[in-house]
Amino acid sequence: MRRNKLALILYFLLLLVFAACSQNENATKQTANSSMNQTSSEGSTSTKTPPADVVRAEASKVEIKAGGSAEASVKLTIANGYHINANPPSFSYLKATELTVEPAEGITPDKPIYPASVSRKFAFAPDPLAVYEGEATIKLPLKAASNAQQGAHTLKGNLRIQACNEELCFQPRTIETTIPVTIK
């Protein structure tokens, strides 16, 4: 019974945090900071920051002919017991997984193509959510200018994610990633 009350309290706290996400990122940070620590029924404290390696992003090498196009793959590896919100997310107040890559050295990225999500029901949400678990791959179309310099290049990207476990969601964070590109 005590756990049910605690779960209900945590649920409402998370709803407040998610509602703040949809209004203003600064308000989200303040709300998240004020509720950074949650006390469990055993009296221990858990932080709302997941371990750094909960989500890893790794891009495979891409070869493009000058003036041509290709597709980069950014593989996400999500630790067992965790998930991240899909893109698009189930609800507007959830932070979607989002990859942004800036053009560089004659290489222009197009809009990312996000993988299909899975639908899962969690204790902290009344309805199932669209999430990524285990491994997911984001495809990124690339175009090389006809005058792009041959050789090795590196595109820098940012992957914005919000990791969650079975009971709660953690603060969104950004993972820096690089995409190795060779112009032939």
List the helices and strands and how they pair.
Blueprint: H1 2-23, H2 25-34, E1 37-39, E2 45-47, E3 55-59, E4 62-64, E5 69-78, E6 83-85, E7 98-101, E8 107-109, E9 118-120, E10 129-132, E11 135-144, E12 151-161, E13 163-164, E14 173-183
Parallel strand pairs: 4-14
Antiparallel strand pairs: 1-2, 3-5, 5-11, 6-10, 6-13, 7-12, 8-11, 9-10, 12-14
Helix pairs in contact: 1-2
Write structural notes for this entry.
The chain has 184 residues and is α+β, with helices and mostly antiparallel strands. It has a single domain, classed as Immunoglobulin-like, CATH 2.60.40.1250. It has two helices and 14 strands; from the N terminus they run ααββββββββββββββ. A four-stranded antiparallel sheet has the order 3-5-11-8, with no helix packed on it. The chain has a four-stranded mixed sheet with strand order 4-14-12-7, with no helix packed on it. β9 and β10 form a beta hairpin. α1 packs antiparallel against α2. It starts with a helix and ends with a strand. 26% of the residues are buried.
